[in-house]
Amino acid sequence: LLEIQNYQTSPMAEPAELARQSGIDESAIKQKLQEFLERGLVFPTSKGPQFARDATQLHDATLSSNDKWIDGELLDLWKEYHEKEWIPSTAEIPKEIHIQKIRVLPALKSIQKSPDIKASDFLADEDIGELINKADPIALVPCSCRRSMRRCKTPVDVCLQFNKSARFHLDREAGRKLTAKEAIDIALQAEEYGLIHTWPVRSSGAFNELCNCCRDCCVIFDGGLRYNNIDRILEKSRFRAVVDSDECTGCEDCVDRCFFGAIEMAESRSSKKMTAVVDTEKCYGCGVCVVACPCDAMTMKPV
């Protein structure tokens, strides 16, 4: 059926027309289209089922499907594509081009650990708790990147879907419906593992998903950090981490946590001890370093 459509992104023909073209019974066509939906191969539109618009949409949908459609071969094929084609293709990104507007959102716990930040410091589209509380429905699906790449031991079931995207996943039995509290708890769990909250901002501005990204498996961070062009893909939050050198014990937990190499150890002029120092130009304002700080020497500030 997909061959008949030539893999085009225009809506597919009606089942009766597909039956005529393929010689397959119409009821079998409808059953196959439902299977395509559940596998993440086609997407519902007002004009009918439509094939994926790009590799990213196909990747995310197929790999977040119900377990019954996932096997080792599918995972291995996507991993091979990631390593041999997808990531190498991101090596050369013209400076004036942003592949996609993907925004970092500050960790909830990093804001909670920053007493100087007031509610008025937040914009409407950067408070994770508020965004989640306004979403309906909410669904949990596996992280497409970690499910296929399998390079790290961080949780897979932390990809949060909202509103239109959540309905898509729930309709194809690919996600588990959550309450807002459950979703916030999962976001907090992701922060403890050092995962970064990212929001792929669509042209509509709709809040449809919250990714919790690692540096080893994620298609955003793997290529962006490897080829030093993460700034063409990722938009910083409006917050930066700061260190109180008097409170810092020099444990270096924050250094290990930072994806961006924004934290180094340096000798304090006053105490002569080694303390963490944040390069605010390199910092993306994710806050995972603040979450990890055992002595509460790190906080966030709006910039």
The proportion of strand residues reads 15-25%
Number of helices: 12
Q: Please write the string of helix (H) and strand (E) elements.
A: HHEEHHEHHEHEHEHEEHEEHEEHE
Overall helicity:
25-40%
Average pLDDT confidence is: 91
Major sheet details? 7 strands, mixed
Counting helices, strands and paired strands, the structural category is alpha+beta
Give the terminus-to-terminus CA distance.
52 Å
Can you count the beta strands? 13
Shape: elongated
Strand order of the largest sheet: 6-4-5-8-7-3-9
Radius of gyration: 22 Å
Question: pLDDT under 50 segments (min length 5)?
Answer: none
Characterize the structure shown.
The chain has 303 residues and is an alpha+beta fold. Helix content is 34%, strand content 17%. It is built from twelve helices and 13 strands. It has helices spanning 15-22, 26-39, 55-63, 72-86, 108-112, 128-134, 144-149, 163-171, 180-192, 219-226, 253-257, 288-292, and strands at residues 42-43, 50-51, 102-105, 138-141, 159-162, 176-177, 196-200, 209-213, 234-235, 239-243, 263-267, 274-278, 298-302. The strands form four sheets. The chain has a seven-stranded mixed beta sheet. A hairpin with an 8-residue loop joins β7 and β8. The longest helix is centred in the first third of the chain and has 15 residues, at 72-86. The mean pLDDT is 91.
